[in-house]
């Protein structure tokens, strides 16, 4: 964003409907200007009709041989209760042969069906709707069902032993687009659920125990903005070791007024920690086991990427010289490189970015156009195709979702060994 765009954004950001109208009008004006829309510093493999979803999970298998993906089976519209989505993986030297392992009716465009690898043994987990409620299915690479877990999965420990779960049905009462189109929220009539909350589930047996109710978390350092608001949990993510996890507590009065705060806890729910944010946290990546990087707002410095120390009140801004807006961050294993992206700019272009936290330098790996059709026509449409970039296990490749060809596609590019050769950047 330039300075004028930032001023306008700050003025309209608290009103999503107005923000959408201003964005659409501004981009419509810029559509007539002659600019280059697509550019990449590396060859990109494009798999049309496929996507993965959020940036907080790795779609590559433990040996980087297989690449998980969802295959779309419906037109570009919001999913309905009975709409299917195919799940599977790409194999082959070029990861160009798709093998389906099942279908699901529990999904959305942003996070898919929470498709992910279950540990290192080649098992695959994804959420589904069994006609009564949301469950998680575990299959092998041939698609043979190993077991059905009684709750949907939001996050898995790296070894696949434990899962975190919350109500995806409750998310239909929220403005973010992370809900499933089916299922029943048993406490839909309660603004603050007193029974449901965040659950830990053993993936071998399906045994689940509740760690916190929404009411318990809402009762911690309550804020006046919580009065009369609809409360829920979202965005669970384990640390690299799996010993701790973070999650969001969110509340909304309507589509124009919504707040988020971020907590972390031990695997058993102990040592609960509230991060020092101020009303807004959007996207997060663990940087090792002791730091969480999030695009957030703090009372001291406003909105930026911040490196928060887990279990402490300390934090620092990161990338202030290179970023002026939100993205979807994740980190290389050594913590040096931040992989992130941008939302569509005035020309509907999104940027794929590597940021060197040591040299404090931004590398634009690629830039791709985002067609207007993926912006939706109302605030209830959550059709956009964000990059949501993700590292391979060896940190030599990235994959991201893009609609620059006119259809949703799962894309990959290889940057090689970053310790040996600095990344390329587009002009």
What report would you give on this structure?
The strands form seven sheets. This protein has a five-stranded antiparallel sheet with strand order 1-26-25-24-23, with no helix packed on it. Strands 2-29-28-27 form a four-stranded antiparallel sheet, with no helix packed on it. A four-stranded antiparallel sheet has the order 3-4-5-6, with no helix packed on it. Strand 28 and strand 29 form a beta hairpin. The chain is mainly beta and 427 residues long. The protein has three helices and 29 strands. It has a domain of 197 residues.
Instruction: Order the strands across the largest sheet as they lie in space.
Output: 1-26-25-24-23
Class based on secondary structure composition and strand pairing: mainly beta
Low-confidence stretches: none
What is the gyration radius calculated from CA atoms?
Answer: 20 Å
Query: Given the C-alpha coordinates, what overall shape results?
Result: globular
Helix content: under 10%
- Our measurement of the CA-to-CA distance between the termini, rounded to an integer number of angstroms, reads 18 Å
Q: What proportion strand?
A: 35-45%
Mean pLDDT: 94
The largest sheet is: 5 strands, antiparallel
Task: Give me the count of strands.
Answer: 29
Q: Work out the helix count.
A: 3
């Amino acid at each position: 964003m330039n300075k004028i765009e930032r001023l306008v954004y700050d003025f309209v950001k608290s009103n999503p409907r107005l923000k959408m109208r201003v964005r659409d009008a501004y981009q419509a004006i810029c559509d007539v200007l002659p600019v280059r829309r697509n550019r990449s510093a590396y060859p990109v493999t494009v798999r049309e009709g496929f996507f993965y979803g959020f940036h907080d999970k790795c779609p590559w298998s433990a040996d980087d041989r297989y690449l998980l993906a969802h295959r779309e089976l419906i037109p570009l519209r919001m999913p309905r209760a009975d709409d299917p989505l195919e799940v599977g993986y790409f194999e082959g030297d070029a990861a160009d042969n798709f093998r389906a392992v099942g279908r699901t009716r529990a999904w959305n465009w942003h996070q898919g069906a929470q498709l992910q690898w279950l540990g290192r043994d080649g098992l695959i987990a994804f959420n589904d709707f069994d006609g009564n409620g949301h469950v998680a299915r575990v299959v092998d690479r041939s698609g043979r069902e190993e077991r059905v877990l009684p709750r949907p999965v939001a996050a898995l420990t790296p070894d696949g032993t434990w899962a975190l779960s919350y109500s995806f049905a409750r998310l239909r009462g929220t403005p973010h687009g992370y809900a499933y189109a089916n299922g029943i929220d048993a406490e839909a009539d309660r603004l603050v659920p007193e029974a449901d909350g965040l659950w830990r589930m053993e993936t071998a047996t399906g045994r689940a125990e509740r760690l916190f109710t929404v009411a318990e978390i809402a009762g911690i350092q309550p804020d006046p903005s919580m009065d009369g608001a609809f409360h829920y949990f979202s965005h669970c993510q384990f640390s690299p070791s799996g010993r701790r996890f973070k999650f969001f507590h969110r509340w909304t009065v309507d589509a124009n007024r919504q707040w988020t705060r971020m907590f972390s806890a031990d695997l058993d729910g102990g040592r609960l920690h509230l991060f020092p944010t101020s009303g807004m946290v959007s996207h997060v990546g663990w940087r090792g086991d002791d730091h969480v990087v999030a695009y957030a707002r703090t009372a001291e410095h406003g909105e930026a990427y911040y490196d928060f120390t887990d279990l402490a009140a300390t934090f620092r801004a990161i990338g202030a010289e290179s970023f002026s807006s939100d993205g979807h961050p994740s980190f290389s294993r050594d913590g040096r490189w931040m992989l992130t992206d941008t939302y569509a700019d005035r020309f509907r272009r999104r940027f794929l970015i590597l940021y060197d936290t040591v040299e404090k330098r931004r590398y634009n790996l690629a830039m791709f156009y985002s067609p207007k059709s993926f912006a939706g026509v109302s605030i209830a449409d959550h059709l956009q195709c964000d990059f949501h970039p993700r590292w391979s296990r060896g940190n030599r490749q990235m994959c991201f979702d893009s609609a620059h060809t006119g259809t949703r596609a799962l894309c990959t590019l290889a940057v090689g060994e970053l310790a040996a050769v600095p990344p390329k950047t587009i002009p």
